[in-house]
């Protein structure tokens, strides 16, 4: 039995519980999240699990040593509470509590991840339920596809996500990236401890300098030069040691933080590549670029500088406090007078800064979104003379960003001077109380001098810690946006134990296939068998589901109902990369990367030789125009193929598909956007491409599908006709009406040019003699 699971959940298949769990799963049941249950009901340590799948919630109770299960339903809910370091995870329905599990807070991250996935599944069930009751009667959220409440434009699911508070504790989740460098971090902490200790030597040496040298000198005694040299030498040595240790500490921790930041960027980008297309449908390019770029840089800055400074400040305050209390407890207590007020201010300001920085992150994403939209589309901007409009759009987004920053700076500008004022008042109180103690003979002038030196460091570090509130909240907001990506589970997951593909024959079977976008059904109850090497043409009006069906066959999405099989094996049981390596895709708008012609042709097979690249280009009828370029195959193409015509880009795309020699070929309107002459060139290239391959083609011009073995006519997500061109024309059904509509359109175009008849595939039709009832006025079939 084969199963598919998220990468994170697969770790829970280890050990005896993992074996039991694997045996309990149904075919194709997907494990979405899991958390250990390490406490029993009476708070003894135990070993259990709570596992969320695409169908059920499973739990192994460490008390009774058996599994329980609950089928997912919209009325189920998970609740999590913690008290005294013990977390309680509860499962409820609308009337009662169904389950309770005790978990130590060391697994809090796993619990929160499971609850997040549970909520997504619950919302999916709610959407499906709403669809069944009021199909097409409610508006859908354009972001997540949820059904909006009546008379409301706000999506509850998105509102919960946006208003979810960001805690600084999210920074602790970065430990998974820091764990490989724990020894370097331990060394950095030890160096920090030694550096702090070395920095505290100097103030302590002021006591003997004052009491044994300077004050006796004022009283007429002779200065002991040897003693002076000793203390001054000790001050110099302590300063040099502090400098050396500080350099080593900064160097070690900076290197570690850079590597943590690099791993964070790489992991996030790799995870993005694994996510399905529905994730990208609700995200803006600029927003994702900002998360990987600006947010990781912010986190890296926090780890390399601010976290280090925070650790140093804490150590300095703790060690300074210990020294102050050892010198004079009463004076040390007076030193702590401003501390409660500063702590209260930090607590108050932290929440305002947190929400402010989250707002800044969102509005900055809008700025990058304008850039991501405008720069790739600069040709359209200039063609319609909309430069000023885009400049105004950028200025408006930038102004919103400025206003968001101003609101945060208003709070921060009041907080920082207030903390400084409190520390100055505290220093004044210490001076007053210290003079009183000196006058009463309780302490010496040297002790007061050393105390003032230590207090200066104490308050400086206290002030520095208060300033770290800002950068901590910035980093926490950035970490939350990064983990929003990392916590997202692909809707097209890889199976844990994928079926190994042998030689692919190319037989595709679709059984009762259904698919929905949100609550809108696009494909329903579709059954089709495609034989190995057969060419299938998909035709139908716009919105009939042709492109969606192609996306399902390519496994850009997974079916909602039924199954798609390759050579008798469900495609969900095959590793995604193995499956797609057998598919060649030629799109209506071919996408070329910035690089050379040869690199673009070899994109699917980077190790291809120059001979293989040239052979593919020849077969795609691209070799001749490539040789006319200044540097031939080494000519650079601009971003997205700028500098090449549409037909040239399409032939390079065909060469790219030819090079990987796929068993399955998908042509999505590959010739719809070119002129007739270019279409002939592309068609000759396609004739070479389809030889011996299972081919599924969508074409705007129905005449280009005459060579298909069978034509599949779709309407509203269903197959309404299947057959050859001649057979379908003889039936005079849906396909015949589409064909006649295109013929009539061609006739009208020809009449405008002074021609009275239209020729379609060598057959002349007199359009005036056709009954009006046989003509469908639509000429679109996508």
UniProtKB/TrEMBL annotation:
Main location: membrane
Residues spanning the membrane: 185-207, 227-248, 299-324, 330-349, 414-437, 443-460
UniProt-annotated location(s): Cell membrane
Keyword Phosphoprotein: no
CDD domains documented for this protein: ABC_6TM_exporter_like (cd18563)
Molecular function terms, GO-annotated: ABC-type oligopeptide transporter activity; ATP binding; ATP hydrolysis activity
Membrane topology reported for the UniProt record: Multi-pass membrane protein
Domain ABC transporter span(s) in chain numbering: 508-741
Signal sequence annotation: none
Keyword tags: ATP-binding, Cell membrane, Membrane, Nucleotide-binding, Transmembrane, Transmembrane helix, Transport
Database matches in InterPro entries: AAA+_ATPase, ABC1_TM_dom, ABC1_TM_sf, ABC_transporter-like_ATP-bd, ABC_transporter-like_CS, P-loop_NTPase, Type_1_exporter
A GO-annotated cellular component: plasma membrane
Residue intervals of the ABC transmembrane type-1 domain: 186-474
Protein name according to UniProt: ABC transporter ATP-binding protein/permease
Origin species: Comamonas koreensis
Classification of source organism: Bacteria, Pseudomonadati, Pseudomonadota, Betaproteobacteria, Burkholderiales
């Amino acid at each position: 039995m084969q199963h598919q699971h998220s990468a994170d959940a697969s770790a829970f298949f280890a050990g005896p519980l993992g074996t039991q769990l694997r045996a309990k799963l149904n075919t194709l049941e997907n494990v979405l999240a899991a958390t250990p249950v390490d406490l029993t009901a009476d708070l003894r340590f135990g070993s259990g699990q709570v596992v969320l799948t695409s169908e059920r919630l499973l739990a192994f109770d460490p008390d009774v040593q058996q599994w329980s299960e609950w089928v997912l339903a919209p009325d189920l809910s998970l609740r999590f509470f913690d008290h005294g370091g013990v977390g309680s995870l509860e499962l409820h329905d609308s009337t009662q509590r169904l389950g309770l599990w005790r978990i130590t807070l060391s697994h809090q991250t796993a619990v929160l991840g499971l609850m997040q996935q549970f909520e997504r599944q619950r919302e999916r069930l709610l959407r499906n339920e709403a669809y069944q009751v009021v199909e097409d009667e409610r508006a859908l959220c354009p972001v997540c596809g949820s059904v909006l409440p009546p008379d409301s434009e706000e999506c509850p699911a998105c509102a919960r996500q946006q208003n979810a508070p960001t805690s600084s504790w999210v920074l602790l989740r970065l430990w998974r990236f820091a764990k490989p460098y724990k020894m370097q971090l331990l060394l950095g902490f030890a160096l920090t401890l030694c550096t702090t200790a070395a920095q505290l030597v100097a103030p302590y040496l002021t006591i003997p300098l004052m009491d044994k040298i300077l004050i006796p000198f004022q009283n007429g005694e002779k200065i002991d030069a040897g003693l002076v040299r000793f203390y001054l030498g000790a001050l110099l040595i302590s300063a040099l040691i502090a400098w050396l240790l500080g350099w080593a500490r900064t160097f070690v921790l900076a290197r570690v933080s850079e590597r943590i930041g690099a791993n964070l960027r790489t992991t996030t980008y790799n995870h993005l590549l694994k996510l399905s297309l529905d994730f990208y449908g609700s995200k803006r390019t600029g927003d994702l670029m900002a998360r990987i770029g600006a947010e990781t840089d912010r986190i890296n800055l926090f780890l390399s500088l601010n976290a280090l400074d925070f650790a140093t400040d804490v150590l300095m305050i703790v060690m300074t406090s210990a020294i102050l209390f050892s010198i004079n407890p009463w004076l040390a207590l007076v030193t702590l007078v401003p501390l409660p007020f500063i702590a209260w201010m930090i607590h108050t300001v932290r929440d305002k800064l947190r929400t402010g920085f989250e707002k800044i992150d969102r509005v900055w994403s809008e700025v990058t979104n304008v850039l991501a939209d405008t720069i790739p589309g600069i040709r359209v901007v200039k063609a319609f003379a909309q430069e000023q409009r885009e400049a105004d759009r950028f200025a408006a987004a930038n102004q919103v960003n400025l206003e968001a920053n101003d609101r945060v700076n208003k709070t921060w500008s009041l907080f920082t001077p207030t903390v400084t004022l409190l520390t100055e008042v505290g220093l004044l109180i210490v001076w007053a109380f210290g003079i009183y103690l000196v006058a009463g003979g309780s302490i010496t002038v040297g002790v007061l001098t050393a105390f003032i030196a230590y207090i200066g460091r104490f308050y400086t570090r206290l002030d520095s810690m208060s300033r770290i509130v800002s950068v901590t909240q910035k980093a926490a907001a950035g970490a939350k946006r990064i983990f929003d990506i990392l916590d997202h589970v692909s809707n097209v997951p890889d199976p844990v134990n994928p079926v190994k593909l042998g030689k692919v024959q190319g037989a595709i079977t679709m059984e009762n296939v259904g698919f929905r976008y949100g609550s809108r059904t696009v494909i329903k109850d579709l059954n089709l068998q495609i034989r190995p090497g057969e060419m299938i043409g998909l035709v139908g009006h716009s919105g009939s589901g042709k492109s969606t069906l192609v996306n399902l066959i390519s496994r850009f999405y997974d079916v909602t109902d039924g199954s798609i099989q390759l050579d008798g094996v469900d495609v969900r049981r095959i590793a995604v990369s193995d499956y797609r390596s057998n598919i060649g895709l030629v799109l209506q708008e071919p996408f070329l990367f910035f690089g050379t012609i040869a690199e673009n042709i070899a994109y699917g097979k980077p190790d291809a030789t120059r001979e293989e690249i040239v052979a593919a280009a020849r077969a795609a009828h691209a070799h001749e125009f490539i040789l006319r370029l200044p540097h031939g195959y080494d000519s650079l193409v601009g971003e997205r193929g700028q500098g090449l015509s549409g037909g040239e880009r399409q032939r390079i795309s065909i060469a790219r598909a030819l090079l990987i020699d796929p068993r399955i070929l998908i042509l999505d309107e590959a010739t719809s956007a070119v002129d007739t002459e270019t279409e002939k060139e592309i068609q000759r290239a396609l004739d070479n491409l389809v030889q011996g391959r299972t081919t599924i083609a969508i074409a705007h011009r129905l005449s280009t599908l005459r060579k298909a073995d069978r034509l599949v006519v779709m309407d509203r997500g269903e197959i309404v006709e299947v057959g050859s061109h001649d057979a379908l024309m003889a039936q005079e059904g849906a396909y015949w009406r589409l064909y006649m509509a295109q013929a009539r359109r061609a006739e009208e175009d020809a009449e405008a040019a002074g021609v009275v008849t239209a020729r379609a595939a060598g057959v002349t039709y007199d359009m005036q003699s056709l009954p009006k009832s046989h003509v469908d006025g639509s000429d679109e079939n996508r």
